[in-house]
Amino acid sequence: MQRLDKWKRTDVLGKIIRATDSRIICLYGGSSSSKTISALQYLTTWGLESTEPLVITVIGESLPVIKKSVLRDWQRVVMRGMFDPIRFNKQDNTYYFAKGSILQFIPGDEELRFFSMRHDIVLIDEAYNITKGIFDQVEIRTRMQILLTWNPVAPFWGQKLEDQREDVTVIHATYKDNPYVEESIIKALEIRALTDPNFYRVFVLGKYGSLEGLIFKEETNWHKVGYMPEDYKRRILCLDFGFTYDPSAILDLRFHDGEFWVNELEYKSGLVNSELAQVLENN
């Protein structure tokens, strides 16, 4: 594939191209590191140059998020003067390239949507917002390659892929890998980092931290233990019914000495009522 001279390219795009033989490419790191833009440039190159018509898919958290983030970035930054409004169907958020390939933007807020949808290349943007179930359905229906991008706000299923498989390439980047990032953004990142250690770790260094805005933070408001208190003021068993593809959850909640204790007794898909009843009876 030839890269387009119109683009401002970082080394992240070069690393993606060098990983063309990998089934999965994971791009994670700090803010303004060009992860998503580079991934979109890679997908767009396929769409513009492939003589074989390809189905290229970008998956985001929801349609409103897609329109305000990855779709807007693709139109304004990646396509720029190349974007032809006539080729873009606003109804289904699909762009039709001249050589027959399509680029479609699809929300990842419903797993059933992906049960019959086939792809050639897929980008899952901010993958920590997408369930592992959706990834599994997408992978078994994707012919060529899957790219994932994310900021390491907290551990999730995507970071385990490298340990579980040999066909995965992991690319880490920060704003220092992007020579085109504006000085005002760099300054804003560095000022915020001075007073927020978690922000500095996640969005500047691109290392794993904890979710922004959590009310209860691990090791600050809660921690893991290997037991439940036998002397308690109140105990409640909670059941959240699941469906075929959503898990059912059963929790043992106990109030002890001004503290709130939680034990996950069951979290599983496909359980029928008799099986749920057995878990409750056993506890």
Q: Which strand-content bin applies to the residues?
A: 15-25%
Helix coverage percent:
25-40%
Indicate how many domains the architecture comprises: 2
* CATH topology-level fold name of the largest domain: Rossmann fold
Q: Radius of gyration over alpha carbons?
A: 22 Å
Strand order, sheet with most strands: 3-4-5-2-6-7-1-8
Main beta sheet strand tally, sense and closure: 8 strands, mixed
Name given to the CATH homologous superfamily of the largest domain? P-loop containing nucleotide triphosphate hydrolases
Q: How many β-strands, per DSSP?
A: 11
Low-confidence region ranges: none
What does the average pLDDT come to?
Answer: 90
Distance between the termini: 60 Å
What is the string of helix and strand elements? HEHEHHEEEEHEHEHHEEEH
CATH C-level of the largest domain: Alpha Beta
